[in-house]
Design the sequence.
């Protein structure tokens, strides 16, 4: 294992802050970051965990210029970080996390790799969609780092809670494609509205975001999307800090499913 991969794994295990790699080495770029992220994934596989899909970062193209990006970023999901809510209600412990935040996202499960990147093709390749909460956690002080740093640090992925799946029926694909470009979300903390967002902020549609992920992964080389992959498509609102005792509710308008509740302990 390279020293950087070992350091990042240890930082998460020990809940310890570390200096971002890019602050130590100006040449640390996305190519180097994906190599570190892949190494961490292999270490986790070797320890008995399975990779089960992908998380997308930087899904809003409006932010790419400032971040010096030309596409989305991504990192692995794992069998021990993904869980499913019962009746759209879940409880999650964050005791092992350092500075967690919550992001409401649309989650896809692929039946097969999409044939192309348009929304209809992506939905034809999709088994189901769901509302999810991704919990991100950062070992860099004040969350101040570059995209390459976040990619190397497991994409800052800590957990994904998935609500009730809505299966994609062939005769509803055109309808779903339209809904995914035109829905909205409200995020409540302890029954108070704290953020709002729209599906169009995620690459104009979460379905198009999956298509962009597939294309970007092919361009970079290495692993590509596979049947059975779970994909979380980027935050629909600003990421919000979470703490034990919080109850979070994401409520959708314009697309099923309608809501997901997460109780934090």
Sequence:
């Amino acid at each position: 294992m390279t020293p950087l991969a070992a350091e990042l794994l240890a930082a998460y295990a020990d809940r310890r802050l570390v200096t971002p790699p890019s602050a130590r080495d100006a040449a640390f770029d996305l190519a180097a970051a994906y190599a570190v992220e892949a190494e961490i994934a292999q270490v986790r596989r070797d320890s008995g965990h399975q990779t089960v899909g992908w998380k997308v970062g930087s899904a809003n193209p409006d932010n790419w210029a400032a971040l010096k990006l030309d596409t989305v970023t991504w990192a692995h999901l794992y069998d021990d970080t993904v869980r499913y809510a019962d009746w759209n209600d879940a409880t999650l412990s964050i005791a092992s996390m350092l500075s967690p935040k919550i992001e409401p996202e649309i989650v896809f499960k692929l039946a097969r790799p999409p044939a192309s990147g348009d929304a209809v093709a992506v939905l034809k390749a999709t088994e189901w969609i769901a509302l999810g909460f991704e919990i991100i956690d950062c070992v860099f002080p004040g969350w101040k780092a570059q995209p390459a740093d976040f990619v190397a640090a497991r994409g800052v992925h800590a957990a994904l809670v998935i609500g009730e799946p809505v299966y994609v029926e062939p005769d509803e694909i055109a309808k779903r494609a339209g809904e995914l470009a035109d829905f909205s979300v409200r995020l409540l903390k302890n029954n108070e509205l704290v953020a709002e967002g729209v599906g169009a902020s995620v690459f104009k549609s979460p379905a198009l975001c999956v298509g962009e992920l597939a294309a970007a992964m092919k361009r970079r080389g290495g692993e590509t999307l596979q049947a059975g992959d779970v994909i979380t498509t980027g935050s629909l609102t600003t990421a919000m800090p979470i703490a034990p005792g919080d109850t979070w509710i994401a409520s959708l308008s314009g697309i099923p499913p309608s809501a997901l509740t997460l109780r934090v302990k």
User: Anything to note?
Assistant: The chain has one domain: 3-264.
